[in-house]
Every structure is written in C-alpha cells, then in structure tokens.
Amino acid sequence: MRVTTLSYATSTGWSEPLPEWDSSRTLVLVFAAPEYVESDIFAEIAATYPNSVVVGCSTAGEIMGPVMSDHTLSVAVVRFESTDIRLAWELIDSATESREVGHRIGQQLDDPDLKAALIFSEGLKVDGTGLVHAVSAAVGEDVILTGGLAGDGQRFETTWVLADGKPTLGAVSAVGFYGSSVRMGYGVKGGWSIFGPERTVTRSEGTVLYELDRKPALDLYEQYLGDLATDLPASGLLFPLAIRQPGTDQNLVRTILAIDRKTRSLTFAGDIPTGSMARLMQANLDHIIEGAETAAIQAAASGAGQGEMLAVVMSCVGRRMLLADRTEEELEFAWDALSEGTSMIGFYSYGELSPHDGGTCELHNETLVMATIGEVVA
C-alpha cells in the first residue's frame, strides 16, 4: 500500500503534482471547501484517475496532517497492493429516505469479501442513524463502517458529496474495501460534560424533537442559551444533547441542524426516539482536545497494518466553533498519537459515523472520529 497526501488552493495550485497511480485499486479521497462545487479541479482529478475510485465531500474545514484550512482541497491518493475497492452512491431528497438509501448502498457493496466501508453523506437532509443502520443491516454487522456527513462551513445551507467523482447535491457515496489484506481501525471520543436534569423525550418524529417532559424542546434550549438563542441553530452546537435508551449507560450525542419557531421544535442530525432520556451537554476545552488523542490511540491500535497507513479524521464543526483558536490543538494531539509512516487527512463535519466499543456503526455528533486504513500483505 502506497499513500501520498497533497493540498490544492485556487491561489497557489497543487502543493505537489498528482501521483500517476491510476488503477482499479487506487482510492482518491477529496475533502473540499464548499465553494469548489463548480470548480474545474474535479475534471482534472477525473482525467488523472479514470480507473480509480474518487470519493469525498464538502466540509466545514479541511484537515491536512495537524493543520486545518479553509478554501482548499485536502487529498489523499492510496494505491492498494492486494485490496479491491468498490464505489456505491445514491441520491437522497429528504431524511425520510435515509433507510431506503442506506439499504441500496449496502446492497451495492455487499459481498462475502467486504471487510469495511467509508461513507460520506449529504449533511443536512439525512437521518444519519437510519442511513448507517440500514447499510449495516444489508452488509452484516461484522463489516466496519465509518465516515461522516458533509459540511458547509458554519452556514448550514448546502452540502455536496462526490458521486462518481463529481460534486453532487443530495447524495450519499461509499467505498467498500474487500479481501483479507485490508485493515481498518476506528476510534471515537467527544470530551463533553453532561449537566442539568435528565428529561424524557415525550414527543418526537425521527430526527425532529418536539417535547421534553411534555414541554416544547425549543423553549428548553432558549432557556439555557439566553442571548445565544438568537443565533440558533448554529449556537446550539455549543450545547448538544446526550441521548440514552432506558436501561443502558451508553450516550449518543446529537446536535441541532435546524429549528422551527412555529412548532417550537428542533431538528437533529440523527434520530431522537420517543421514550429515550436526554440531558444537555457543555464543553471543557481540555477534555475535548484530549478526546482527540484518545480517538487516535483507539484507531491506531485497532487497525495496525504494515508499512504506510492512512488516518482519516472526521471532527464535528461544533468542536471547531468551540475550540476557535485552539482548533489545531486537537489535530496535533491526534497526529502525535499516530505511528511513524501514517498520513492524516480529513474534514470538519456535520456528523460523524463510527462503531462505539465494537458495536454497530452509529451517528455521532460533537465527536472526533478517526478511521485508519492499512494493509497486511503476505
């Protein structure tokens, strides 16, 4: 397995020439600023890699090693020695289609030799939970699934995904990894602290939360946010929701994508089941930064290969907003936890996809997820 990473900016061009590694076993990962949606740069990439799998999405910040940038492309080119790869993609119009789209993606990828997949989805019109659960059901729970939801800076207006190498609105794209040689590791960590009373979700529909303890959900957020409430939904990223099913100790973090002042409801990136328990969360900056290191250690330990490796980072835009000038500290902590010979790229996202403690892949918010990809070749 060979890996190279490079960046592109309109003002400076490519940081180095694109390697001539085109093949059916070459993966090209591209994480791009939203404004590149109509750029000719993707035609250049397609012309350089006509036989390769090209996937990626728009971002809320591009990651290259321990550095975060805006208005750029972060690109990784990976040529596998023994691992076969396959592209699957579908269009999606609304969150209600998420499970059906996930099922179709899973059907395209399904194969006895499938070991893992990276998934990149439209970031605003999707139920990430339903999407990944449906993919997992189609391919089997022993297949490792990771990935993230596309971003649009801090605007929350339009996101896009590379579908067949082209920036496409309303799309979900995935690449499957096949064969006994591939090794994918994963890690996920938040670092947020739970506060306030636990409340029962008394009314919800899919990703829309209407009531907590029979009171309008938006009222609760406005109560806690105070003056910040005028900046919803963006300010809601600073106060995510921890969701727990009764009888379990595991919390899933949910962050706000949209609000409806007329119905006093909140729309989240993942499902909010009626009857689940919910508590607000707040941040400790040092714990959040240390969480990035923990995720990287988990990913490196669970997916060690031979020689060169690639680490793909998906970190929530809410973490970037909160960390502000300290954003690159979490990337430095993650970078330092990786072994020599590992390259790292990624993006700031609207949602992160990863298994948790060896279970089924879940949608996470306000976390840093890392996937490591390597090969062990006899």
Write a structural description:
The chain has 378 residues and is α+β, with helices and mostly antiparallel strands. The protein has two domains: 2-188 and 286-375, no CATH class; 192-283, no CATH class. The protein has seven helices and 27 strands. It has helices spanning 41-48, 98-109, 128-139, 217-225, 285-302, 317-323, 327-336, and strands at 2-9, 13-14, 26-32, 53-58, 62-64, 67-69, 73-79, 84-91, 114-121, 144-149, 160-163, 166-169, 171-178, 182-189, 192-205, 208-212, 215-216, 241-244, 251-254, 256-260, 265-268, 277-283, 309-316, 342-349, 351-355, 361-364, 368-375. Strands 15, 16, 17, 18, 19, 20, 21 and 22 form an eight-stranded antiparallel β-sheet that branches. A six-stranded mixed β-sheet has the order 6-5-24-23-27-14. α2 runs parallel beside α3 (128-139) and α5 (285-302) packs parallel to α7. The longest helix is centred in the last third of the chain and has 18 residues, at 285-302. It is globular, with a radius of gyration of 19 Å. The two termini are 12 Å apart. The model has no long low-confidence stretch (mean pLDDT 93).
Can you tag this structure with a few keywords?
378 residues, alpha+beta, eight-stranded antiparallel beta sheet, six-stranded mixed beta sheet, globular
CA distance, first residue to last residue: 12 Å
Number of strands: 27
| Number of helical stretches of at least 4 residues | 7
The portion of residues assigned to helices is: 10-25%
Indicate the proportion of strand residues. Answer: 35-45%
Query: What's the shape?
Result: globular
Largest sheet: 8 strands, antiparallel
Low-confidence stretches: none
Structural class: alpha+beta
Radius of gyration: 19 Å
In the residues, how many domains can be counted?
2
What integer is the average pLDDT?
93
